[in-house]
Amino acid sequence: MTTAIAGSNIAFVKYWGNLDDALRLPMNGSISMTLDAAVTTTAVEFSPDFSADSLLLNEQPAAEAAVQRASRQLDHLRQLAGVATRAHIVSSNSFPTGAGIASSASGMAALTVAAAGALGLDLPEAELSKIARLGSGSASRSIAGGFVEWYAGARHDDSYAVQIAPPEHWDLVDVVAIVSAEEKEVGSTAGHPLAHTSPFYQARLGELQRTLPLMRKAIFERDLELFGELLEAEAISLHVASMTSRPSILYWTAGTMTLLHALRGWRQRGTAVGYFTIDAGPNVHILTERAHVPALLEQLGQLECVASTLVCAAGQGARVVG
Ligand code: PMV
């Protein structure tokens, strides 16, 4: 049995829409931070005694669709190892599943690393990233730690993520404000194929050519103001594309919007500093430097729409722990 741990990640420049849905080759490159306090721990054991793959998720037998997705992920590694042995997987998240904190990213990264270890495959990080990508696009970024860029590529072999700066490069913190811990209705897997149906999607892709180098610069220079401006514009761009796809997907709830207005108000009044981004769900990730966290948490505590908060710094990449 091999156990691995992987952090989720928050994308500053986001992945939305595929060049190839089956291979999860993205239309654009993306940049993220791997999170230290939103992690999945996964143990995998292969045995000829098992007749089928099984998955225990957060101490419950997982739904059939989740077992099949995990099983397909194991198939990639079984093929590399030249075996057909079935596996038992035991996985748990340190945060609510399916609520805009990417459990698929940490989950697929942890599963990939644990299963590779259990099969005795010694794969370089880029290879693990490519395999994780096949299970969930954003999982490709959770293989690496700190600040990470996923090169879009145009083929399986050139679409993978690498670290662009280590965790200690910048004391940036993601304060996740959970406005709803319920499962979202339309996951990102259903969202990506719809991206192309938005009339604003091509404009988004064009804008990303400008955003990507500027975001790299903001991170390298630890320029919080430039970073924040790019971060919010990029999140809004993704959600414009999702809201205007056919059918339209609305990830934001009333609580999401209340929080966005509140955050901008705090910034204007100088009572708290932070910048938002939002994934495929209602929760708001507020990025700021650690020194600003106490004031931000105090303001968030006064909002009724915020059910709970989770503070994450830049964390390590996926790794075997036992
Ligand atoms: O990797 P997926 O299919 O869960 O897609 C992730 C999509 C976003 O979270 C909205 C953006 C991103 O890059 O993480």
CATH-scheme architecture of the largest domain: 2-Layer Sandwich
Radius of gyration, CA atoms, in whole angstroms: 19 Å
Q: Assembly type of the shown chains?
A: single chain
H/E topology pattern: EEEEEEHEHHHEEEHHHHEEHEE
| Number of beta-strand segments | 14
Q: How large is the count of helical segments?
A: 9
Shape: globular
Query: Into which percentage range does the β-strand content fall?
Result: 25-35%
Helix content: 25-40%
User: How many domains?
Assistant: 2
Quick one: biggest sheet? 8 strands, mixed
Bound molecules: (3R)-3-hydroxy-3-methyl-5-(phosphonooxy)pentanoic acid
Q: Structural class from helices and strands?
A: alpha+beta
CATH topology of the largest domain, what is it called?
A: Ribosomal Protein S5, domain 2
CATH class of the largest domain: Alpha Beta
Which stretches of 5+ consecutive residues score pLDDT under 50? Answer: none
Query: Average pLDDT, to the nearest integer?
Result: 95
Distance linking N and C termini: 8 Å
Features:
2 domains; Ribosomal Protein S5, domain 2; 8-stranded mixed sheet; binds (3R)-3-hydroxy-3-methyl-5-(phosphonooxy)pentanoic acid; about 325 residues; 9 helices; alpha+beta
